[in-house]
Write a structure and sequence with these properties.
alpha/beta; FAD/NAD(P)-binding domain; Enolase-like, domain 1; 3 domains; seven-stranded mixed beta sheet; five-stranded antiparallel beta sheet; 14 helices; 21 strands; 23% strand; binds flavin-adenine dinucleotide; binds nicotinamide-adenine-dinucleotide
Length: 448
């Protein structure tokens, strides 16, 4: 007889693990299928190893600032193997923690790929189960394009397998990953050239913010070519030669394609059971994570929702609380998703861009900017500035967008995201006592 479960989860990444664990805590009988390492993209080839590299690059920059202030220090080159070993030990500990938690919660783990079948089944190579609820949490992978010589380049997963830092790096793309990798690889000592197809890096972010970031990147020595598509790649002298739309030819030791990600929705049996996908292959979900098939749900990067770890986790928890408790759990509020691009220095944003606000409110939009040099940078003689932009609407000046670029922006945003969610007005910001001397105080002082 086929084993019966309350919930079968496909994928042991951020979304799948969160769903499986919370469901088990609520008393559900759970099986989880994961062919790879527990933790998925975020833990193994995403947020965590990326942030480790970012922290290393940030420390190197801080040593430079320390030198500017008067310390007789220099960061020197990173001992790459020692760093990788430390990073891996951190990741291995996290993964071991996940595995133990699954055991403690009585969740069955099948270390194989799975697909959905008829009659509520989920099958892998060796195991078939039936589950009342089935969750697709299979994530995504780096996109590939049909450019001659594409195979001579690497994708973001490969960054974490590097055994040393390449000297001259070319990066194609202008999104999160391209910008983050450009900043941290440059910060660790590589010469970096970025090829952006569009007019600007981070094309979907607030235009002033993106421009501020591009300015910082260039000032630090990253070469940014906009309106520059890479049409062909050749292998040359142990490295690569890129040919671009502007007839530019560029040589590099290593090439990274950072041109977006695609959902892992193939070969899951979805078409056979009638689960609808969008044109790019994402599983179409409603605000309750329901797919077009009753009893089949989706969370995370495989689905039509922002591809961020906290979104996958929050969506997963809410879904299983809806399924396995009596609580009336509303849909996840995606109106003010705070997000940080770990550039050097970071960029943080929450709510609407100015263009989005104007599209809805027209002239009833007020914008307040601040640009200044933070005290540490000024003391150290570093030219880096901080950029803050507040987008407000209506007579009450409700704050609908906050955009920050500069040192510490990554840690500043989280608390202000609460204020935006609660509908704070500029007056509420201005009436909040500042913390002096900090960079964050400029957010509450904006427009005064
Ligand atoms: C370089 C990089 C940096 C990032 N940095 C950040 C960041 O700083 N902050 C942030 O919020 N987000 C970041 N992200 C995005 C974040 O990693 C993802 O949004 C998040 O990991 C998505 O989680 P998920 O559960 O949907 O998928 P994943 O974590 O990708 O997990 C999916 C799992 O499903 C498994 N799987 C696939 N097919 C099957 C199958 N048929 N059966 C069973 N299992 C299967 C896979 O092996 C995988 O383990 C980053 C992403 C990348 C690539
Ligand atoms: N800090 C974070 O939270 C973080 C970090 C990394 C990734 N992520 C998540 O992962 C997602 C994927 O990141 P990403 O950077 O791969 O995608 P992205 O969607 O952010 O950016 C893709 C970029 O590639 C460009 N592009 C697409 N096709 C191209 C082509 N053929 N030639 C040249 N350029 C091309 C696009 O114009 C865009 O600038 C992000 O959208 C984000 O949700 C989050």
């Amino acid at each position: 007889m086929t084993d019966q479960y309350d919930l079968a989860v496909l994928g042991g990444g951020s979304g799948g693990l969160a769903a499986a664990q919370q469901a088990a805590r609520l008393g559900a009988k759970v099986v989880l299928f994961e062919p790879g390492r527990l933790g998925g993209t975020c833990v193994h080839v995403g947020c965590v190893p990326k942030k480790a590299l970012w922290l290393a690059a940030d420390l190197a920059h801080q040593v430079e600032l320390a030198r500017g202030i008067g310390f007789n220090v220099s960061a020197g080159a990173l001992d790459w193997p020692a760093f990788v070993a430390r990073r891996q030990a951190y990741i291995d500990r996290a993964e071991a923690g996940y595995a133990q938690r699954l055991v403690d919660l009585g969740i069955r783990v099948v270390r194989e790929r799975a697909r959905l079948g008829s009659d509520n089944t989920v099958s892998s190579h060796g195991v078939t189960v039936q589950a009342t609820h089935r969750l697709i949490a299979t994530g995504g992978r780096p996109a590939r394009v049909d450019v001659p010589g594409f195979e001579y380049g690497a994708v973001s997963d490969d960054v974490f397998g590097l055994d040393r830092l390449p000297r001259r790096i070319a990066i194609v793309g202008g999104g999160y990953i391209a910008v983050e990798m450009a900043g941290l690889l440059h910060g660790l000592g590589a010469e970096v050239t970025l090829f952006v197809r569009g007019d600007q890096v981070l094309g979907h972010f607030d235009a002033d913010l993106a421009e501020a970031l591009a300015g910082s990147m260039r000032a630090r020595g990253i070469v940014v070519h906009t309106r520059s598509a890479v049409d062909a790649v050749e292998r040359r002298d142990g490295g690569v030669l890129l040919r671009t739309s502007g007839e530019r030819v560029h040589r590099a030791d290593w090439l990274l394609w950072a041109i977006g990600r695609v959902p892992n929705s193939e070969d899951l049996g979805l078409e056979d059971i009638g689960v609808s996908l969008d044109a790019r292959g994402h599983v179409i979900i409603d605000p309750y994570q329901c797919t077009s098939v009753p009893g089949v749900f989706a969370v995370g990067d495989v689905a039509t929702q922002p591809a961020l770890t906290p979104v996958a986790i929050a969506a997963a928890r809410r879904l299983v609380e809806r399924l396995f408790s009596d609580a009336d759990v509303p849909p996840l509020d995606l109106a003010n998703v705070p997000t940080v691009v770990f550039a050097q220095p970071p960029l943080a944003t929450c709510g609407l861009t100015e263009a989005q606000a104007r599209a809805s409110w027209g002239d009833d939009v007020q914008v307040h900017h601040a640009r200044f040099r933070p005290m540490r940078e000024a003391l150290a003689g570093d030219a880096q500035t901080m950029f803050i932009k507040l987008v407000c609407v209506g007579a009450e000046e409700r704050v609908v967008g906050l955009h920050v670029h500069g040192p510490g922006a990554d840690e500043i945003l989280q608390g202000f995201a609460v204020a935006l969610r609660l509908g704070a007005r500029r007056r509420d910001f201005n009436e909040t006592l500042a913390i002096h001397p900090t960079a964050a105080e400029e957010v509450v002082l904006a427009g005064r």
